Amino acid sequence: xxxxxxxxxxxxxxxxxxxxxxxxxxxxxxxxxxxxxxxxxxxxxxxxxxxxxxxxxxxxxxxxxxxxxxxxxxxxxxxxxxxxxxxxxxxxxxxxxxxxxxxxxxxxxxxxxxxxxxxxxxxxxxxxxxxxxxxxxxxxxxxxxxxxxxxxxxxxxxxxxxxxxxxxxxxxxxxxxxxxxxxxxxxxxxxxxxxxxxxxxxxxxxxxxxxxxxxxxxxxxxxxxxxxxxxxxxxxxxxxxxxxxxxxxxxxxxxxxxxxxxxxxxxxxxxxxxxxxxxxxxxxxxxxxxxxxxxxxxxxxxxxxxxxxxxxxxxxxxxxxxxxxxxxxxxxxxxxxx
Length: 338
Description:
Order of helices and strands: EHEHEHEEHEEEHEHHEHHHHHH
Shape: globular
Number of helices: 13
Number of domains: 2
CATH topology of the largest domain: Spore Coat Polysaccharide Biosynthesis Protein SpsA, Chain A
Largest sheet: 10 strands, mixed
């Protein structure tokens, strides 16, 4: 289909792409076939080494609403920032290159945003695995105020801290960029910064976004520098939270829980990861060293288990009371994540 956008209620869709040749066509098909047609589709090929760039260019020829930026690999944050710099839309949406949308995604999201007079609409999503699909929703539609939205972002398991599955008023994120120094939790920090410009957010209890589960993502893949990447992210976020919300005890408490959750990620992806070749004594030593880091030590002390699954609550309990051998046993008895 050929088409050209107009600026009235234009939605800019920003899609970072890196080595997504298996999925990018499905992603773009789900966009060009939306029931809502007034879209500006910006695809950023972030130095892909496969045929992703070629496929994107082919879709550009099919539909004039699509523009493709080819750049050297710099990571998802810089790729998204490239899209934000040239976005013309009154509204902004982020889609990952290996994901795809329900055909009524934008029609429904924009209708709700206008009817409810909110700044952001977020919907549920389907977590797409190789052999099955898991629906993730809140269980009911609702409106959240500023503090409720921030609280939900800091509850990592809640899903509010991801930038996709949302339709944003552009004015809410005007002047906010993805921090290139954050490699773990870049979505969450972007959302945290946006909160200051938000009045109300609508949660749509419908799974309209299809998120492809990727075992190679930064938060699941074993990396020797994973603890350092997490620590950098936590320090940046902590500095911001303490500046903006130092007198808000509830937010500070929730932020400690947020850091504690990332300690659990370190346990899974570094300390007791199957690719970590240290023996069990060495792995426990790794965990002890992590727990000595001042930012982590403080979060462990003041976290209160809110928003965690039962297994994660038990795991955090073992860390609080330095029952590291039991921490290891819990991890070793799980097939993928805590």
